[in-house]
Task: structure prediction
Amino acid sequence: MEKLVVQGSQHLSGTLSISGSKNTALPLMAAAILGGDVSTLSGIPNLKDVRTFARVIGYTGVDVSLNPDLGTATIDASEVTNPEAPYELVKRMRASFYMMGALLGRCGHARVSLPGGCAWGPRPVNLHIDGFRALGAEVELDKGYVTATAPGGRLRGGRFKLTPSSVGATINLMLGASTANGTSIIENAAREPDVVVFGEYLQAMGAHIDGLGTSEVVIEGIPALHAADFANCPDRIELGTFMIAAALCGTPGEPVTLVGGDHTQLGDAFIEAFAATGAETEYGTDAIVVRAPAEIQPVSVETAIYPGFPTDLQAQWTVLMTQAAGNSKITDAVYTDRFKHIPELRRMGLNAIVVDNEVVVEGKTRLSGAYVMSTDLRASVSLVLAGMVAEGETHVQRVYHLDRGYEDLEGKLAAAGVEVKRVSYDEFADPEHEPAHA
Result:
């Protein structure tokens, strides 16, 4: 396996670049299946999830060519010979379930394994299944697979209310509804920028969609979409992560410049909370400049669906609050058990109490380097941030979680002054005598 070894007491300086959005890239790739020809997507990050999803799509007979140097994905959907997504691939990430909507919309039939992904939840797919049934699909569950069929080859359309609102279900239903034989209305639809940009791509392919960015999305189905090239948006979660890193580890008063991001996609709740920490931020069209405060102020947050505080940034925020001048509380109202990073941070000196979906964090905590283990994507990057501010050396193990969502994280941090390296390791060796080699 591989791990990141982070030297503590680090100071960020210079420039960090923001990659294309992972959470948007995967739906864009799924949508390209509906095009029936060759589409080229740009701004596609070189991530493990992207490579995995390319394999999932390729299983159907669609040709996917990734160019990590150019950041492109060229998808030839001229033929779909096998409308199925197998367990061996789908188990690796939940976004593979987008194949249900894409294949229903393209072929009128789909057989997709129940998904896997990060080890926290619950994130059931019942919303997806109930939604497709409301749009006219006949759905059966058999031995870990979901089989859906649109009678006559096209969904009939219909109305469905998402309870609760869900990014994944909104995207999946939009995929299927775009070629339905009627109008579909998604109530309580997700309003995240990922959904809006994805919907704009469907529109570029000819889909008739109204209400993007609102809680009611209306899709007037058409017989088929056409191929189209499209540019992905920047990753707002990476941007938020690097803003937190700059406030946490920047030299007070000195600029850390973030290029390629779009702060308008973070939502007002995060922007307001970040400002309340005392960090000075200049938001420009080409770059965002962050200056760390002399003293981080404690700011309690509660996650919510967009435009609320992102659940994907609560683990990173927890680390920021360990260095604040007072105690703070983080409440996750989106995923109530997303605190698997807390036991690992305790190994580094975190003093925190978790009760149900809330964690109270003691500020001004002296963190010390330790061997810690990643449990999911966002928890893993929080451990890297903790390692940057800790005293001593931190070994963040199982970084395959990290590789799912952050493109060349160690390279970007190293270019900004952080001493961090990736090494191979034997997970079952004695850590004190573990042979580390590049």
Q: What stands out?
A: The first helix runs from residue 22 to 32. The chain has a mean pLDDT of 94.
